[in-house]
């Protein structure tokens, strides 16, 4: 039985003597090898191999293309060669390639027999000793799939001899298991020395069936098979066995099974061999054939019978022919071969006429490789034989065109011929073959070549013969085949004059030079642009662009690129680079269009073709275009966005403020502007924004003039002159302003800020209008203020004005009555209620001041922020001014919370009295706040605070010019201006002239 695995891999061997044509690209000389290591003719990739071959002037193997059956070479003259073989010559073990070794060795632990270096993992039974776990006769594993074959009888420990394990089953009955010559499987053969041995074997099988319940009768041999999940065992129409996967692809297989006797060992009539005459075809007259291994296949003259094979319940049952076993004419020993074999990457077969019902599939003995006419005087039978080899896995060759094939050589070892006279053997193309192919189904197609001569060792002519297979392989390429069958036949099949024998291990060497691949990554390198066609084609601002492309050769040879530019309108070629200097495959080629070839305002196509010196790729597939525009666009226009923004930053006037964003529209009169670059205070501008019209935003971080620099850029990349737009960032705007100048009788104080939603103060208690400090100091008549009695007077808005979670600033001019100084009470000027506590309050406090009992014992000005809106001990952050408290004098108090820096501060700026004015210099004290701010959601209050849900700390004295700045803190300069009496009328307009942050 022959077991080995199915596959679809091609075959490889190093073949010498291959003829290739020279290519046009010059390779380097030995002196030009530079740093290349020419001592190791191998490289990982085809490109690396081709480069080394060119540098060293030698053929270099492509290491990552090697399989046990196939090797590919980059040749010194720029071509490539792939060598196929029906027999693997090396296998991979632990990442290294080692010689194929079929030797059987006992595995570590003695549980099984293993093959030293097979193509696939193989193991055989070490014998069914009681102490051992039962094991199959043989196991084949590859690609994650497994086949187990069990023998129906108990197996003794085998004797090992090279690639063969012999199990002595009974007297005269033995099982010989031989590793297949290609080491992809194994061949078990039952050998029966005599009729008595056959009877003993049958009795043992019957007893085993009775014990196991297996199917079969008489001398039927039932092999239990176990396959991996997803595989199934099936019979073929011709009587073979296949193990199929879920896609019905063959993974393991068996041809129709045969049994044969030893009739071929009986001498035929005829004399001894002569030096130049016919000899006995048993091989006795030829030393090479005399050494042939008996038993792997029937020999000429053996009596052969085909055996029925069935697959039932996981058993493959082989039924030997009882007629042959009982026939007195049978010559013993008889060999029973279910002939399991693997459908591997190659097939080969011998077919015969003369009544033979089966072919010799995958023969390995040279005695079996007969070709031509043989008669019973030499072969114990009259027949004509032909040989055929099938190579698969040739997709790479099949994808070529016939012209790519330089030449192909089919090589086979000629081991014997009828005599020393020259005879012709023809090489032909046939169709698909398998284990069931016969003489009638092996067609003869294209004749590709022939060899005339003899091949006898005694004549000195035996050895490898080369057949020209070029025509055959060109046909394969032109027909896009992925496999080819090459057959041998004697040119004269009418007599034994053309009779020859060939070994099975044929090879096929194909030399080829494919056209380079079409150029890839075709694009503009400068100015950089991808390959685009149509409306989206790039507009470039130069008449000398640089084009680039990547050029590759499937065989790894050196390549040249040729660039071309075509007028899109006329389709005339306006420039062609001609092939530029050769580089290695995979290189990037670039070429600039010379001056004077291209014109402004025109559109062009560009393309690239690649050559290896003899073949051309054809023009690059993608359509690539560009248009030329070298005219600069007009300088852009800048206009502030008038709606939907917190501020409108018009040129020439103060607007907005720190943290108050605005936007600007950038536009151009040029129709092809595609983008802009701009910079706030940065020239030349660097920040890019796309579009024919674009909007950019800006949030100031400081006050004062700001310059916006803008350039327009058209589709070609032309840059306009720079537009400079200058605007002024104003000081912060009040979100609440209560000047108390509107002494009405309705009990309210007007909010005169510029915000849309006003927050008037409602007076409570007996709060009264009084004269303000500006009128008192003589700076403006009509200035008013509120005066509070310190008992229950205050003023409040309907809702919150300050978001106490964010930054804010509050300010007021205050005057504390001298009578309140020694009361030991705190008095609050400004605050904002929460549910239970003020979120903040600005107040006078009698104690806990920077010095004992305050400055001069008078207490201190204080800014407090409660940590939480809860009853009882909410905690607070307090900052007290180190400036002395002045009573019966006007003082500007400014309190600020900076949410970004997490600091609170209080400014005090005494202005004195009309009789004793001060220099009005503000002084700041600050501290840090760790607590998380919370929103005081109640009314903004003037004249009191809130604690534990109760109003308290009513202010005794006057308050004027209350201001609120939400979301921001003020600069010292702003506070100084406020302290020195700055008000809206000083700037020639309403309140927004002081802080012009709204639109015109």
Give an account of the 3D structure:
The protein is mainly beta and 1000 residues long. Among the domains are: 149-267 and 280-340, no CATH class; 520-628, Sandwich (Immunoglobulin-like), CATH 2.60.40.10; 648-729, Immunoglobulins (Immunoglobulin-like); 736-990, Jelly Rolls, CATH 2.60.120. The protein has 10 helices and 70 strands. The strands form 12 sheets. It has a 15-stranded mixed β-sheet that branches. The radius of gyration is 52 Å and the shape is elongated.
Notable features of this structure?
10 helices; disordered C terminus; eight-stranded antiparallel beta sheet; Immunoglobulin-like; 1000 residues; disordered N terminus; elongated; single chain; mainly beta; 15-stranded mixed beta sheet
């Amino acid at each position: 039985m022959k077991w080995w695995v199915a596959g679809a891999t091609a075959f490889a061997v190093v073949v010498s003597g291959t003829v290739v044509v020279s290519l046009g690209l010059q390779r380097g000389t030995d002196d030009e090898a530079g740093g290349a290591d020419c001592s190791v003719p191998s490289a990982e990739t085809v490109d690396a191999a081709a480069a080394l071959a060119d540098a060293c002037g030698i053929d270099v193997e492509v290491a990552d293309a090697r399989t046990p059956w196939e090797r590919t070479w980059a040749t010194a003259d720029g071509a490539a060669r792939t060598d196929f073989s029906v027999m693997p010559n090396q296998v991979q073990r632990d990442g290294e390639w080692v010689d194929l070794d079929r030797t059987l060795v006992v595995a570590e632990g003695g549980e099984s027999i293993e093959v030293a270096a097979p193509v696939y993992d193989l193991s055989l039974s070490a014998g069914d000793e009681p102490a051992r776990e039962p094991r199959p006769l043989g196991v084949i594993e590859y690609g994650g799939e497994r086949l187990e074959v069990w023998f129906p009888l108990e197996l003794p420990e085998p004797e090992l001899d090279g690639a063969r394990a012999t199990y002595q089953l009974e007297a005269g009955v033995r099982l010989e298991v031989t590793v297949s010559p290609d080491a992809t499987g194994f061949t078990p053969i039952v050998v029966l020395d005599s009729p008595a041995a056959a009877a003993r074997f049958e009795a043992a099988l019957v007893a085993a069936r009775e014990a196991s319940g297996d199917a079969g009768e008489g001398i039927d041999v039932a092999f239990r098979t176990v396959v991996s999940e997803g595989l199934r065992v099936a019979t073929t129409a011709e009587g073979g066995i296949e193990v199929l996967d879920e896609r019905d692809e063959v993974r393991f297989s068996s041809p129709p099974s045969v049994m044969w006797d030893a009739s071929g060992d009986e001498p035929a009539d005829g004399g001894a061999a002569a030096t130049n005459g016919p000899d006995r075809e048993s091989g006795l007259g030829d030393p090479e054939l005399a050494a042939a291994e008996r038993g792997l296949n029937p020999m000429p003259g053996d009596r052969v019978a085909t055996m029925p094979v069935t697959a039932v319940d996981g058993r493959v049952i082989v039924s030997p022919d009882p007629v042959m076993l009982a026939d007195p004419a049978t010559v013993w020993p008889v060999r029973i071969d279910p002939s399991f074999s693997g459908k591997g990457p190659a097939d080969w077969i011998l077919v015969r006429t003369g009544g033979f019902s089966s072919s010799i599939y995958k023969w390995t003995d040279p005695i079996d490789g007969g070709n031509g006419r043989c008669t019973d005087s030499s072969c114990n039978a009259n027949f004509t034989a032909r040989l055929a080899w099938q190579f698969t896995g040739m997709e790479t060759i099949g994808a070529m065109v016939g012209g790519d094939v330089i030449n192909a050589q089919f090589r086979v070892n000629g081991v014997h011929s009828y005599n020393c006279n020259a005879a012709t053997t023809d090489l032909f193309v046939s169709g698909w073959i398998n284990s069931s192919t016969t003489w009638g189904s092996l067609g003869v197609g294209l004749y590709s070549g022939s060899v005339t001569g003899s091949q006898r060792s005694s004549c000195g002519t035996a050895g490898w013969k080369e057949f020209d297979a070029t025509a055959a392989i060109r046909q394969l390429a032109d027909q896009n085949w992925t496999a080819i069958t090459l057959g041998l036949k004697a040119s004269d099949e009418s007599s034994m004059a053309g009779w020859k024998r060939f070994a099975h291990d044929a090879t096929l060497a194909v030399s080829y030079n494919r056209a380079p691949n079409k150029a890839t990554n075709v694009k503009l390198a400068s100015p950089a642009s991808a390959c685009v066609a149509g409306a989206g084609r790039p507009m470039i601002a130069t008449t000398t662009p640089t084009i680039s492309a990547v050029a590759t050769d499937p065989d790894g040879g050196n390549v040249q690129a040729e660039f071309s530019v075509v007028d899109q309108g006329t389709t005339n070629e306006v420039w062609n680079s001609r092939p530029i200097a050769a580089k290695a495959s995979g290189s990037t080629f670039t070429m600039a269009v010379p001056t004077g070839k291209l014109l402004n305002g025109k559109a062009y196509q560009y393309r690239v073709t690649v050559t290896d010196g003899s073949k051309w790729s054809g023009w690059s597939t993608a359509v690539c275009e560009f248009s030329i525009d070298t005219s600069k666009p007009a300088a852009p226009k800048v206009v502030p966005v008038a709606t939907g923004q917190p501020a409108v930053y018009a040129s020439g006037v103060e607007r907005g403020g720190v943290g108050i964003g605005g936007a600007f529209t950038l536009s151009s009169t040029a129709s092809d502007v595609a983008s802009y670059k701009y910079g706030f205070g940065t020239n030349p501008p660097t920040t890019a924004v796309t579009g024919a019209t674009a909007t950019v935003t800006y949030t100031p971080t400081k006050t004062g003039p700001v310059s916006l620099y803008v350039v327009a850029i058209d589709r070609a990349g032309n840059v306009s002159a720079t537009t400079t737009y200058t605007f002024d960032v104003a000081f912060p705007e009040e979100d609440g302003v209560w000047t108390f100048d509107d002494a009405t009788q309705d009990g309210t104080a007007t909010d005169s800020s510029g915000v849309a939603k006003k927050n008037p103060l409602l007076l409570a208690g007996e709060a009264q209008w009084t004269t303000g400090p500006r009128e008192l100091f003589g700076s403006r008549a009509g200035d008013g203020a509120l005066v509070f009695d310190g008992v229950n007077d205050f003023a409040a808005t309907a809702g919150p004005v300050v978001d106490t979670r964010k930054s804010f600033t509050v300010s007021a001019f205050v005057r504390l009555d001298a009578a309140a100084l020694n009361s030991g009470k705190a008095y609050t000027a400004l605050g904002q209620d929460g549910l239970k506590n003020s979120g903040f309050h600005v107040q006078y406090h009698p104690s806990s001041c920077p010095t004992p009992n305050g400055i001069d014992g008078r207490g201190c000005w204080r800014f407090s922020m409660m940590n939480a809106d809860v009853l009882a001990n909410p905690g607070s952050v307090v900052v007290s001014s180190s400036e002395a408290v002045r009573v019966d004098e006007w003082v500007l108090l400014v309190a600020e919370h900076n949410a970004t820096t997490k600091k609170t501060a209080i400014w005090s700026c005494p202005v004195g009295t009309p009789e004793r004015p001060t220099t009005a210099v503000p002084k700041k004290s600050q501290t840090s706040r760790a607590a998380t701010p919370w929103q005081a959601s109640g009314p903004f209050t003037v004249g009191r605070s809130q604690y534990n849900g109760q109003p308290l700390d009513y202010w005794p004295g006057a308050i004027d010019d209350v201001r609120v700045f939400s979301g921001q803190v003020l600069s010292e300069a702003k506070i100084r201006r406020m302290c020195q009496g700055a008000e809206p009328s000083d700037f020639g307009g309403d309140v927004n002239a002081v802080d012009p942050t709204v639109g015109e």
